[in-house]
Amino acid sequence: MIDYPVVTSKVHHTWYEPEDDPVELNRLVLWSLNQPGVTAVLPPGSLGLLDGISDMLRGKNQVPKFENKDMQHMMERYNDIVPIFHNRSISGTKVST
């Protein structure tokens, strides 16, 4: 059996811990919108976090480009995060979920 480490937010009214740093949240949204075929992203469950995303994109007719240096930053920042929906056992071997 796989142990899914679910932690609820103590700050936001969500079942997960959203990224609440506006700079980091914008970086995540830009990464998502720069993926081929992606035209929309799900907003964070907390409306207070949505304003920063709206401000970043307001008045633009194109999504700003995602920079490679930002990918490296994200890989370092989120390296230790354990996804709550995953298909790997504790040992790291792939299992069916």
Give helix % range. Answer: 25-40%
Q: Helical stretch count?
A: 3
The SSE order reads: HHH
Number of strands: 0
What topology does this entry show?
Layout: H1 22-33, H2 47-57, H3 68-77
Helix pairs in contact: 1-2
Task: Give a short overview.
The protein is an all-alpha fold and 97 residues long. Helix content is 34%, strand content 0%. Helix 1 (22-33) crosses helix 2 (47-57).
Task: Describe it.
The protein is mainly α. Helices cover 34% and strands 0% of the residues. It is built from three helices and no strands. It has helices at residues 22-33, 47-57, 68-77. Helix 1 (22-33) crosses helix 2.
Key attributes of the depicted protein:
97 residues, mainly alpha, 34% helix, globular
